[in-house]
């Protein structure tokens, strides 16, 4: 029997390696940009076509390569930064002409021009699937110009698994943002299909953040800086009021290399714990400078995870530094023995005489246990505190005044309301009986039913109603729109703008009238007719729609239309704390029971809860 184990051909081995290094166009972009940075470039251009599938071109003004280096960089295991095993633990560079070039060349058509400063002519090399097809001298400026064409042209199965152009473009922009944030002293530009998306001049870190995410980020940033014997920490964090529902603006860099580390993320989140709820995520761009010998960057193929010798101390330093910065800028309470910053500038001694203590008025003759008819308490102008209005518009007092409320109930019968749960007959014990509805803490709607009482979560109910309505609109493409009197423009981050463009057809199906209006800007000319009666901020609604869409896709991995419907329902529903009149409560319940799944919210939680008379009696030991 002959031997069956053989060495793989070089071309096959390269394609296997390419599958590990180059998963999508963004992977190739990352490698090429990092190579340009290590070449000492201070100006880097990235040019893309068809979201990197047709062309990825990186032009830099770095040191360039000699003829032999230009050929050698496409060989497997060729590198300029590692000479011995110990070098793996003292790496400060990103990658220099050779770590991924062989893998990229194995699955694409490559053209590279490169010239050193001291050379009169540069070198042109063309490759097709790792085979060199052309090499000749060429006149060119100092630096390197590399084109990656037709990525995965010889591995069609891999190419078929690539996502849509907008999806692949978002991955590329994520890599571009990380690299440009880590290197604010370098000028970057990004062009896609002939359109300029970014032009980032050399600038301080704060300006780089503003250039990437938008001018409105200038007021959102708080500086962080801490120097210790273990690490040096610097960067910016975001003010709590600008936190978002989705991750995506959290950046950690260790020795200028972007990393993902849940442990360090928790250190930052812990500093915000009294300022933010668990489902909000603050912005931060933090840089850790540490001795390379104290970390291991080779624990993950993409080098986005790192092992530390003393991670607990690093955690404590980051947590305390972020906490102190929040306190220093009067975001959270702090103790300063030189000055009590929490009160500085708030009250001057002259104003102390002007302070008038609050007065309390009460009726000394009121007796809640008296059977005698008491005088009706004056109505408060604050409906949310004093009670609710009946159908005639008369203000009814707070339920604290039981005597007055009892007298009002004797004067006029309650408004008749009849509701039935879907699938239940009129004699069912859970069918609500003819009684007036009541709002509890402006959060729940209470109705008496034959078996006891029923509670309805008003926000969850409205979300369910809107979700089913928007789902139908998206399916039928018939969302009605109401024209805005004054169209509003909304400027998004480049990532969100690309996402919004990919969703425009479905967004219009919801009832929005939206069109492109310049760089990273859309104009909103109409909103869904269902929201026309509400005082809505079109710009905020649209921004929250995009943010909610990303959140739904991250958490539940839903399809595009379902994510949009959920996001729209959450952002346009009435919220807990909203005062509802009898008509509004009646309409809400009527529409809820017309839904396909009235008993559950779009998060899968109960909308309706019932309590039987037996359960109520038990609480009173009856």
TrEMBL record:
Origin: domain of life: Bacteria
Give the GO biological process terms. Answer: mismatch repair
Region (Disordered) location? 369-400
Per the UniProt entry, what species is this protein from, by scientific name?
Answer: Pedobacter cryoconitis
- Protein's UniProt name: DNA mismatch repair protein MutL
So what does this one do? This protein is involved in the repair of mismatches in DNA. It is required for dam-dependent methyl-directed DNA mismatch repair. May act as a 'molecular matchmaker', a protein that promotes the formation of a stable complex between two or more DNA-binding proteins in an ATP-dependent manner without itself being part of a final effector complex.
User: Which GO MF terms does the UniProt record name?
Assistant: ATP binding; ATP hydrolysis activity; ATP-dependent DNA damage sensor activity; mismatched DNA binding
Query: Which UniProt keywords are listed?
Result: DNA damage, DNA repair
Under the heading InterPro entries, the entry gives: DNA_mismatch_repair_MutL, DNA_mismatch_S5_2-like, HATPase_C_sf, MutL/Mlh/PMS, MutL/Mlh/Pms-like, MutL_C, MutL_C_dimsub, MutL_C_regsub
Q: Name all MutL C-terminal dimerisation domain ranges.
A: 436-580
């Amino acid at each position: 029997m002959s031997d069956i184990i053989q060495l793989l051909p070089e071309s096959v081995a390269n394609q296997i390696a390419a599958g590990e290094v180059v998963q999508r166009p963004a992977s190739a972009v990352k490698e090429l940009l990092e190579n340009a940075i290590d070449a000492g470039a201070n100006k880097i251009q990235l040019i893309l076509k068809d979201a990197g599938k047709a062309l990825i071109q990186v032009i830099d003004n770095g040191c360039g390569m000699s003829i032999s280096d230009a050929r050698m960089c496409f060989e497997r295991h060729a590198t300029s930064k590692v000479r011995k095993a110990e070098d793996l633990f003292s790496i400060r560079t990103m990658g220099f002409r050779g770590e991924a070039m062989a893998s990229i060349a194995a699955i694409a058509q490559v053209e590279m021009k490169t010239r050193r400063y001291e050379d009169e002519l540069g070198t042109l090399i063309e490759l097709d699937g790792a085979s060199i097809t052309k090499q000749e001298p060429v006149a060119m400026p100092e630096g390197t110009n590399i084109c990656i064409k037709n990525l995965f042209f010889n591995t069609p199965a891999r190419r078929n698994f690539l996502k849509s152009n907008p999806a692949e473009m978002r991955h590329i922009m994520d890599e571009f943002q990380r690299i440009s944030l880590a290197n604010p002293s370098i000028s970057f530009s990004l062009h896609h299909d002939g359109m300029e998306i970014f032009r980032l001049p050399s600038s301080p870190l704060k300006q780089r953040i503003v250039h990437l995410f938008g001018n409105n980020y200038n007021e959102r940033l708080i500086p962080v800086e801490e120097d210790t014997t273990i690490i040096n920490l610097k960067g910016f964090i975001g003010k709590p009021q600008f936190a978002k529902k989705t991750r995506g603006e959290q950046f950690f860099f260790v020795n200028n290399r972007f990393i993902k580390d849940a442990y360090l993320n928790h250190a930052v989140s812990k500093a915000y714990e009294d300022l933010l709820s668990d489902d909000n995520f603050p912005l931060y761009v933090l840089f850790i400078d540490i001795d390379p010998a104290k970390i291991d960057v080779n624990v993950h193929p993409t080098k986005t995870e790192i092992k530390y010798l003393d991670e607990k101390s690093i955690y404590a330093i980051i947590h305390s530094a972020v906490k102190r910065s929040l306190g220093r800028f009067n975001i959270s309470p702090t103790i300063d023995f030189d000055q009590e910053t929490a009160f500085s500038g708030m009250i001057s001694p002259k104003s102390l005489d002007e302070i008038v203590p609050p007065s309390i008025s009460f009726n000394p003759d009121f007796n809640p246990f008296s059977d005698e008819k008491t005088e009706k308490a004056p109505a408060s102008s604050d409906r949310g505190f004093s009670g609710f209005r009946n159908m005639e518009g008369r203000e009814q007092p707070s339920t604290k005044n039981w005597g007055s409320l009892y007298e009002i109930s004797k004067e006029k019968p309650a408004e008749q309301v009849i509701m039935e749960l879907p699938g239940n007959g009129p004699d069912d014990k859970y069918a609500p009986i003819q009684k007036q509805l009541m709002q509890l803490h402006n959060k729940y709607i209470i109705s008496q039913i034959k078996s006891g009482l029923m509670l309805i979560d008003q926000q969850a109910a409205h979300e369910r109603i809107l979700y089913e309505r928007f789902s139908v609109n998206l399916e039928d493409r018939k969302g009605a729109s109401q024209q805005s009197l004054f169209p509003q423009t909304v400027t998004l981050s480049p990532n969100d703008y690309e996402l919004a463009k990919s969703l425009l057809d479905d967004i219009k199906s919801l009832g929005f009238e939206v069109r492109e209006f310049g760089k990273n800007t859309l104009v909103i000319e109409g909103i869904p007719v269902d929201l026309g009666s509400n005082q809505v901020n079109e710009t905020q609604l649209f921004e929250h729609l995009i943010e909610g869409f990303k959140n739904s896709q991250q958490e539940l991995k839903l399809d595009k239309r379902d994510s949009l419907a959920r996001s729209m329902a959450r952002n346009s529903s009435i919220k807990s704390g909203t005062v509802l009149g009898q008509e509004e409560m009646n309409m809400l319940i009527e529409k809820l029971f017309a839904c396909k799944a009235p008993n559950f919210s779009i998060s899968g939680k109960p909308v309706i809860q019932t309590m039987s008379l037996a359960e109520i009696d038990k609480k009173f030991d009856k």
